[in-house]
Task: structure prediction
Amino acid sequence: MANFVVKKDGTKSTFDIEKMKAGIKAAATEAELSDGEADNIAEEVSNLVTTSIEDQEEVTSSDIREKILSELDISYPIVAESWRSHEESKG
Result:
């Protein structure tokens, strides 16, 4: 699994799977799914994403975002839509 995330501004931080799960869960909750469903989706998608980056020492935040959305688009499009809507509202 990747050890570091390279952010848009070029800074690096330690990869935190819990932070990724929290973002996915927030999108699922915003899509009005139950806490249990949101937890399951967060666990499933975060496992798929971490597996896809396990051979990398570092990964960009935009790559993580793309991988998350790709998985959500396939299996949970309503959650992907919620994620994108949240991003748009932030500006």
Q: What stands out?
A: DSSP finds four helices and three strands in the chain.
